[in-house]
Amino acid sequence: MRSIVSSASDRYGFVSHSSSRDVYYEVNNLLESAQKQMDRGNYKSTFFICTANYGGDGKGC
Hints:
Layout: H1 2-8, H2 17-39, H3 43-52
Helix pairs in contact: 2-3
C-alpha cells in the first residue's frame, strides 16, 4: 500500500486528484485478489494480502 501511494504522491507527499484514480485501481486490485482468496477458502492468503496493505510500523499505510 505504501508503495502505491508513494508512487502516486507528489514531492510533498500529497496525492493529486488525477493520481487518485491510479491509487484506486491498484488498491481495488489488491482487494479483489483478497476477495477471491476468501471465496476459495484460502484464509491465510487473504490475511497476508490484507495485512500487506498495512505498513506494520504502527503508523498505518
